[in-house]
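1st attempt posting a full record on here, be nice pls
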Amino acid sequence: MDAAGELVSPKQVARAIGVSESSLKRWCDTGRIPTTRTAGGHRRMRIADVIRFVREEQQPLTTPEVLGLPPVTDGAQLGLRRGGERLADALLAGQAESVRRLLFDLYFAGHSLSLLCDQVIAAALHEVGRRWECRTAEVYQERRSCEIVQQALSEFRRLLPPTDSQWTALGATLSDDQYTLPGMMADLVLRDCGWSATNLGPSIPADSLASAVATQRPRLFWLSVSYFTDEADFVAQFTVVAEACRNAGSLLVIGGQMLNEPLRRRLQFGSHCDSMQQLESLARSLRKRWPRRRNSRGVSRTR
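the predicted structure (as tokens):
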């Protein structure tokens, strides 16, 4: 079973939320939290459905540890700006558990993953980078900060709803671009929108990416562009990937700090996103806008 389908018992959920088990079962009976049954007839809930209930109905988690989640802190009361400041301090201090707790608190308070990526994580990492440039932080602290954020983000997968296999997405960075966090964030944001997303990782040769697109024919392919050494070489690599996307009928979506306006005018792509919030908006609108069609067997499919 994948992380999104992880099952928990009513007793666990009742303890985590701080209500009686009978109250929780009434919520299940009215459909507020979807349930399934074991072979023996016992109720079970997907952890992703529990988290959706907590976020949408603003039901506090009093003992999230019961579900394998970080203990409650005051992080949800900080707001996004102060949360970013607190996150930067925790990253520089190497406090991985504090980072994990803070991000989960803000998420449980109802903030979207895209908002956390843009206004908390990106802001915190920018501050870490600024301090490194001002020589008030060391290189190892900057590298460690990125690693801590990656570890924290990887845990969010188990909280997201199951994805739809008809809405496939692939993403990566081209050769020499070793930045991993943008691709990881894009993967989570797309999954949060129901896309079956796969982050292929950093620094992959254009020919290999073209092969992946031709073989898997994703509905959407995202390319994160955070670094390159030679613009002409980047454009040549990009063209290979863009051609593969055209041939496969895949929407090519690009984003990243290196994509200034003059460079974008040299590239052929389907959509450009400056933030994870823009990517979320695009991903949700595509699912509403793209029609479904029937294949040769009469089975409904997406475009």
